[in-house]
Every structure is written in C-alpha cells, then in structure tokens.
Amino acid sequence: MALLWVNLVACGSLNAAARPTIAPQTLLQQINTNTAPLVLDVRTADEFAAGHVPSAVNIPIQALDERFGELRAIAKSDPIVVYCERGVRANRAKTMLNEAEFGTILHLAGDMQQWRRNDFPVDFPK
C-alpha cells in the first residue's frame, strides 16, 4: 500500500486539494498485472451492465452505506478505487467511505467517461 501511495505522489496523481486520485492509465496497468486495488463502481446496476472497468464491483451509491459490511469483507484494509460516470457520485462515495474509516480511497480521474475516451477495455456482466 505504501508503494501505491508513493507512486501516486510521484506521478502527480494528487490534486491541489490533496484528494487522492489514480490516473486511468495507472489503474489499467495495475489491472493488467493483477495488482489493482478493489475497484468500486457506484453507478446504478443498469449503468454497470452497460459496461464497466474490468474487475469492478458494483455497489450503487444509494445502497453503499447499507453494504459497508460486505465492502469491508471484500476490501479488508486494501485501497479502494471509486468511480461513477462523471464524478459526482464517486465524490459522495469517497466522502462516505472516508467518514466510515475505510483505508485509502482513491478516485479514478475522469471516471467512466475518461475511461471510455481513452478507449480502454470495458467488461460486461456475465
């Protein structure tokens, strides 16, 4: 986890307000090398079904606080990358997770819109 944090700082992935983010390119590299943290998609189930970041887990923002126990069991103390379509719900989720004292919470820079713009791989539910 410390190495991830150092990489984020060294790569300039921290914004001016000191809210940790992760670049889509960095996350894709981690996914491709099986070193990615838990990726949390807080969009609706329908949005998730229309395509999501590979390996992402879907917990819609409306159900997030009710599913903290489930999320703790999955994430343990690992970092969590959170995203939505454009950032509004992800920012809210990030605040909720920080207040609930989860570990390191990172926001996927540009969210799903940027992921698609980069033409990165998208998964669909099986």
Question: Secondary-structure map with pairings?
Answer:
Blueprint: H1 2-10, E1 21-22, H2 24-32, E2 38-41, H3 45-49, E3 57-58, H4 68-75, E4 80-83, H5 88-99, E5 105-108, H6 111-117
Parallel strand pairs: 1-5, 2-3, 2-4, 4-5
* Structural class by helix and strand composition: alpha/beta
- Average pLDDT works out at 88
Helix fraction, binned, reads 25-40%
Number of DSSP strands?
5
Radius of gyration over all CA atoms, rounded: 13 Å
Low-confidence stretches: 1-17
From the coordinates shown, what is the CATH architecture? 3-Layer(aba) Sandwich
Distance N to C terminus: 30 Å
CATH topology, what is it called?
Answer: Oxidized Rhodanese, domain 1
Largest sheet: 5 strands, parallel
Query: DSSP helix count?
Result: 6
Overall spatial form: globular
CATH class: Alpha Beta
The fraction of residues in strands falls at 5-15%
Query: Order of strands side by side in the largest beta sheet?
Result: 1-5-4-2-3
- The CATH superfamily name is Rhodanese-like domain
Count of individual domains: 1
- How do the SSEs run, as a string of H and E? HEHEHEHEHEH
